[in-house]
Write a structure and sequence with these properties.
- This protein has 229 residues and is of the alpha/beta class.
- It is built from eight helices and eight strands; from the N terminus they run H-E-H-E-H-E-H-E-H-E-H-E-H-E-H-E.
- It has helices spanning 3-24, 43-51, 62-72, 90-96, 106-118, 145-152, 173-193, 208-213, and strands at residues 33-37, 56-59, 78-81, 99-103, 123-128, 158-164, 199-201, 218-221.
């Protein structure tokens, strides 16, 4: 089987998992978007993803994304920043990405806003919450999340459209469910104050079913798309 065919098979398999999870949760099969994480693959694999129908790509590093986009070119797909973003990379991020899912502080938001203003654009952002309280993870503390969101919401060149989290990597389903439930509640609270907030990004290869059950509208999947390569 060619690499292109293998990736297409994996994409179809992941889409089927999402469909079954939606059915189990009583949700429409198209209620959850698939973001293909390309952190560990190159442009040939990204082209195969696009051939398989992927239209949303997630990159973790600004420098890697810049090189890949230069080679791949712009097309009928979107690319999101999903990894930790340092403030000194804000200018590059505004140049490269359609959205930044990993805004984890007011400081970073202000830098992105300033860079977006220079380019006369409005940047779509998600606010990242550290729902598992793990020191190794980026994200806003849940206790101060809504206050920081309100502060960021005052910035003219940013458009908050979603909330993002990374669940615990322990494999403990109860802990993952608690983290996803907490994030869903913060998402709903934020949406009540800002109706434009419509995206809930959580769930990866190992826990996407739990994420869908807890209301995710977007899952970020990497390793499951490249099995067998």
């Amino acid at each position: 089987m060619s690499e292109i065919d293998l990736i297409k098979r994996n994409v179809d398999s992941v889409r089927a998992r999402i469909g079954r999870a939606c059915e189990s949760a009583g949700r429409a099969p198209d209620a959850v978007a698939l973001c293909a994480v390309t952190k560990y693959v190159g442009v040939p694999q990204m082209r195969a993803l696009l051939l398989a129908g992927i239209r949303l790509i997630g990159e973790n590093r600004v420098q890697d994304a810049g090189k890949k986009i230069q080679e791949l070119g712009r097309g009928d797909f979107k690319i999101h920043m999903i990894g930790h973003l340092q403030s000194n990379k804000a200018a590059d991020a505004v140049e490269l990405f359609d959205a930044v899912q990993s805004v984890d502080s007011v400081k970073l938001a202000r830098r992105l806003d300033a860079e977006a203003a220079k380019r006369n654009r409005t940047l779509e952002i998600y606010l990242q919450v550290n729902s598992s309280a793990e020191e190794s993870k980026s994200g806003m503390d849940p206790g101060g999340f809504l206050e920081q969101a309100a502060e960021i919401g005052k910035l003219d060149n940013l458009d908050i459209t979603g909330v993002m989290t990374i669940g615990p990597l322990s494999g403990d389903e109860d802990a993952i469910s608690r983290a996803f439930s907490l994030t869903r509640n913060l998402f709903e609270d934020l949406r009540a104050a800002a109706p434009g907030v419509c995206n809930l990004s959580m769930g990866m290869s190992g826990d996407l079913e739990l994420a869908v059950a807890h209301g995710a509208t977007l899952v970020r999947v990497g390793s499951a798309l490249y099995q067998g390569l």
